[in-house]
Amino acid sequence: MAELVINVSNIISPLCYTILRLEPYTVCPFRCVYCYSRWYMKNPTRYPYPRFKAIGMFKEFARRIRRRELKPIPFRLSTLVDPFPPIEQLYRASEKILSIAIDYEYPLIVNTKSIYYRFNSLEKKLTTLLDKKLAVLQISISTLNQSVAEVIEPYAPSPSERLKILRDLGSTGIPLALRLSPFIPFASPTKPEEIENFAYLCRDLGVKHVIIESLRIEQEVSRKFFEMLEIGKTEVEVEGYSLREVKGLKPVVRIAQNFRKVIYRLYMEMLSKAGVAFATCKEGLFELHTAPDCCGVYMLKEGIVRYTLFDIYRYAKETSTTINLPINYTLISEICRKYSRLCIENLSEYPKIVSKGLKHHEKKLLKILQNFDILRHVAPSILNIVKKQDKN
């Protein structure tokens, strides 16, 4: 895998704001049943070892950004493994990253389902970043049901332990988000009354922003997975996650869009009533978003991110404009200025170690904008605001 930039893809390139990553450890010890990190990691070991190379690269990058007086691009800590495994108390790899972020006032998006950051100096450093709004803390949870969690997340801290930490942190007014990831029908809150209770629980816990991401799982094990949770065949429909099958890779499915849209709309409506922002992750259902970005970057004191299809959608809706395809790059530049996003012409100012990857992602995004089949699959909302120009 690329060290600091997530790889280009039909899903990530058009949809994700935070594609710079820091992976402090080689594997995640929680071994959740639904975990998909194994799809991307070659020859993973069962024991998490620190990846000190990434730490050194981050320090050098942060130093160069501050020396050049550029707007920092937030890094995600992390994407494939939890940054706070129990072994963190020995190696302190994530703590080193937090120290660098403090020294250079560099923003981070911290994503975890752990509780092991609530110890000693690690907690103090994370709290320092949160208090200065130099970090957004995303707590990941998939179910509130303890018995379900014991089946699908057998080695992770319990949902009640994670919620207790949310309760402790939420009263301080920090940038706090909850990731309902993955959303699993009938294991995650699904019925209207469950979603309403969840929304007001988030409000009471001090959560500012909720992100929902649907389960994706290998097709060959999906039925067994649902049966393990006593979810019947007729209750959940699935659809292909990728546009086409790739030789050597197992087909992956996700919850069918027609099911997701109904449930997600309930989440959006209930959370809005509770005063909590809502967004989907890698779903492309932009009409349901009530926040300026899906990751919660807007809660940071500073930082700049790339533009995505959501910004194009927002612009079209806010200006009552139909976007003609192929898109005029002058319009892209206007969108970037309007929402303070990075465009390709700005990237040459940034170190090549990330600017090269960001340029590849932007080129992929623009290419996807020419393909209605891909757009329909990754961002169905965008089809409501675009049209092909008549070549004549």
Oligomerization state: single chain
Q: What is the CATH fold-level name? A: TIM Barrel
Cross-sheet strand order for the largest sheet: 1-2-3-4-5-9
For the biggest sheet, the summary is: 6 strands, parallel
CATH C-level category = Alpha Beta
Category from helices, strands and their pairing: alpha/beta
Q: Element order, helices and strands?
A: HHEHHEHEHHEHEEHEEHEEHEHEHHE
How much of the sequence lies in strands comes to: 5-15%
Short key terms for the protein model shown above:
392 residues; alpha/beta; TIM Barrel; 14% strand
How would you describe the overall organization of this protein?
- It contains 14 helices and 13 strands.
- It has 392 residues and is of the alpha/beta class.
- It has a single domain, classed as Alpha-Beta Barrel (TIM Barrel).
- A six-stranded parallel beta sheet has the order 1-2-3-4-5-9, with helices on one face.
- Helix 2 runs parallel beside helix 4, helix 4 packs parallel to helix 5 and helix 8 crosses helix 10.
- The protein is globular and about 55 Å long.
- The model has no long low-confidence stretch (mean pLDDT 92).
Describe how the helices and strands are arranged.
Blueprint: H1 12-15, H2 52-67, E1 75-77, H3 88-91, H4 93-104, E2 108-112, H5 120-131, E3 135-141, H6 146-152, H7 159-170, E4 176-183, H8 192-205, E5 209-214, E6 216-218, H9 219-228, E7 238-240, E8 252-255, H10 257-274, E9 277-280, E10 305-306, H11 309-319, E11 323-325, H12 329-339, E12 341-342, H13 352-368, H14 372-378, E13 386-388
Helix pairs in contact: 2-4, 4-5, 8-10
